[in-house]
Amino acid sequence: MSKVSSITVTCNRPLNYGAVLQTYGLNKALTQMGVDAKVLDYYPEYYKKTSNSLIKRIVHLFLRIPDKIKGKKVFGDFLTNYVPMTKKMYHSVQEIKVDVPVADVYIAGSDQIWNCKNLPNGLDDTFFLTFVPKGAKKISYAASLAMPEIPSNQVDRYRNLVGAFNAVSVRETSGAKLLEDIGINNVQVVMDPVFLLTAKEWDEVASASSFIPHERYILVYGYNKQKNVYHYARRLAKKLGIKVYAVGVSIEDYLLDVDRFFWNATPNTFVKLIKNADAVVTNSFHGTVFSIVYNVPLHFFKVGTTANSRMIDLLKELELSDRWIKDENTLLSNSMSYSEANVCLNKLRARSLDFLRREVIK
Fold it and tell me: Where does the Polysaccharide pyruvyl transferase domain lie (predicted)?
């Protein structure tokens, strides 16, 4: 009997750790189920756009040249070595329709593929699998809307496009409610693909890193350059008597108040840095996720003046809401138990894997 084949469409080409590691996580889980799983190599044209102003584009280009050169190699090499992808790279839904890769099941997800408020992804029909041949099965796995509401001018479009799926699963409870409110039934809530693999399975990725920890440290992984995240980490490190490390993709971050900065480290090193940290201070979704996977003491910062729904949903679901820093002037205890969270996580992981088996294999 031949294997079931699948093609996953996700955010696999952004230069960030969460994107490539969740891509790996889902594909690895499918492969372990016996699926001939591949990822659509998709690099949409809008990823290349930075600003409508020519001057701003030129300035941005020169400032980010080192980041882009190293980032494309680091993340590109990881995808090449760890994630089976289509031989062809596609740049638009029109291009895919001309040469659709063949599969038994097409999967949309994970990550913020259905966010049309803060990202262009939700405006891109590729992430709604409109290129899939008539009669072929299409499902979503842990698709994230990551927005407070579906814009009124997008409601009919979302209803029609998502309604055409054979099975729908999303990453957040808030996202499920948004879809149910516009008439999409039987929406399942499943875990981010990173959670599909255990810490032991992620060790296979971490073990390929050349990083060798020789001192205790707090790891900071943040975005939007929230200085209060780094100030908090420094105070925590002083209390614990250890160093502050940071990892990121912007060369400008060398200016941050840290003892060691890992610029565009490999995804393998990213995972290993979290695994070996005494604590993680982060405002990132996947920084939070990997801290939970490895049971590393977590100090989660809200983004700006509001907390991102996808992060709060996750912390609530795993009974870790007390790890959300509500007063940055007060340090959370670095002594915490993951016992209840691990029980919840194991149940949710099993439910998520069951969804994949049921919808992809059976």
Answer: 16-300
SS3 content of the chain, % helix, strand, coil (to 5): 45, 15, 35
Q: Say how far apart CA 220 and CA 262 lie, in whole Å.
A: 10
Q: How many helices (H) and strands (E) does the chain have?
A: 11, 13
The pLDDT value recorded for residue 227 is 82
Q: What is the pLDDT of residue 51?
A: 46
Same-domain check for residues 308 and 184: no
> Which H or E run contains 86?
strand 85-90
pLDDT digit string (tens) for 97-135? Answer: 999 999 999 999 888 999 999 889 999 999 999 999 999
pTM to 2 decimal places: 0.92
Please check whether residue 202 lies inside any domain of the structure: no
- Our CA angle for 350, 354, 358, nearest 5°, is 180
Which CATH number covers residue 111?
A: 3.40.50
Cα 127 from Cα 92, distance rounded (Å): 10
Low-confidence ranges of the chain (pLDDT < 50): 51, 306
Encoded tokens for 257? 């108040």
- How far apart are alpha carbons 37 and 322 in whole angstroms? 38
CB burial of 112-127 (b: ≥16 within 10 Å; e: otherwise) equals bbbbbeebebbebebb
Instruction: Based on the fold, state whether residues 150 and 166 are members of the same structural domain.
Output: yes
For 17, list phi and psi in degrees, rounded to 5. -70, -45
Q: Do 221 and 183 share a structural domain? A: no
* DSSP code of residue 104: S
**Alpha-carbon gap, residue 174 to 154, rounded angstroms:** 17
pLDDT at 110: 85
How far is it, in rounded angstroms, from Cα 283 to Cα 336? 19
Question: How far apart are alpha carbons 273 and 324 in whole angstroms?
Answer: 21
Distance CA 187, CA 158 (A): 14
Angstrom distance (rounded) from CA 226 to CA 123: 28
